[in-house]
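In the present case, backbone shapes were mapped to integers, as reproduced here:
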Amino acid sequence: MYAFHRRWCCRLLAGWILIVPGLPRQWSFAQDFPPEVREQREAVDRSIGNALKYLSEKQGTVGAWSTEAWGESTAITSLAIMAFLAAGYVPGEGPYGEQINRGVRWVIAQQQPNGMIIRKAQSHGPMYDHGICTLMLAEVSGMMDGADALPVRRALEKAILLILKSQAVEKFDRHQGGWRYQIDSRDSDLSVTGWQVMALRAAKDIGCDVPAEAIHQAVNYVKMCSDPRNHGFGYQPGNASTPTLTGTGITCLEVCGDHESPESVNGAEWLKRHPLVERSAYFYYGVYYTGVGVFKLGGETAQNNYRHLVNILLPIQQADGSWEPRHGSEKQAGRIYSTSLTVLALTVEYRYLPIYQR
């Protein structure tokens, strides 16, 4: 019953995009917007439409999306799927419906016997990929029907159990409640923890068995990563703040219901003084997390942050609709990674993804 209701709601929200080809234009009817605001929002719509066209053309024949450096990837595929969902497209219907289905089927086919969702057993950071994939399955689960619904739900439940098992590993005191790259890691970091928190919260929202204590412990770890002096968030407790990780910390706390906590509010103030820029470390990762986290705080702070991201991102979009990462390991992750994360940030105001709801 829940799955039917959620799929029906998603169709209700996005149904008209199945009739009128192209991107949902929920802002296009808002003629009362000032001209400059209306023009910016129309530009964002066009940008997202071009990005989705690029992503659709890059899907492999088996249903996967790939990185330039590492080949087919469950995490990259999951990010691409969520980009379509965030723009209002649903599995099995509309111009991208079958592509979404093929991507989801490919991801769950990669699940290992222990529940890990990863293309290759050998990876320096399997929990990172796993968290992204689990979040995607939680977001898409209620939208699937027919023969796909049960396999997705089963894969999600196995994936959640693995996340909970990894959190329960005995860790050093200041790392309790978080996650790191390996299932049995005894330390934690905010980057890997962010995806696990998002996955657990999204899964709990659709009725998966996620103990409240697991969320509580995760929130405690996230707060330990906040800097009480500078009011941002760092990679691990005691580390210096960065814009990307400050966005991650805010997102985790807001998603978990710790709305407008001192750590989040102070983090948003820190971001005003140290805004994300293209040369920031892990820029596109930061685009996603600052976009989602500050949006969930709401108010003028959210509006200003969204305009800031739009003003950075639209001018650097490539002619083919993609965004090209230029620095560090993001460059190896490639354009599917950066384009998907950008779409996820730009579509936050559409509120189609359940995790985006305030």
Confidence is low (pLDDT under 50) at residues 1-32. The beta strands are 66-67, 71-72. DSSP finds 14 helices and two strands in the chain.
